[in-house]
Design a protein that fits this description.
By secondary structure, the protein is α+β, with helices and mostly antiparallel strands. Helices cover 14% and strands 20% of the residues. It contains one helix and four strands, in the order E-E-E-E-H.
């Protein structure tokens, strides 16, 4: 039964953690992102924390986290062209 405390998570080991103990993401920018001093926006991705993927806007620092399964499903759709902007 889920009680909202997170204790039912398969990753919960019974310890309470502080923010300082949270694993740090190591972000990397795609080689497709070209540096432009007038527009520094790029998408950065971190895959170094097991079971998680974080995506960050390099300009604002806003971050969104996904599970590894969610990320894999997204990449599969992207490879099929599901998110292409071309008409």
């Amino acid at each position: 039964m889920h009680d909202g405390s997170g204790t039912d998570s398969p990753f919960f080991d019974g310890r309470k953690r502080t923010m300082a103990e949270r694993p740090e993401f190591e972000f990397h920018t795609s080689s497709m992102c070209k540096y432009d001093p007038n527009d520094r926006r790029c998408v950065e991705v971190a895959t170094n924390v097991p079971g998680k993927v974080a995506v960050r806007n390099s300009e604002t620092g806003q971050t969104v986290e996904f599970t590894a399964v969610e990320w894999t499903d997204f990449l599969g759709g992207a490879r099929l062209g599901e998110f292409d902007l071309s008409a």
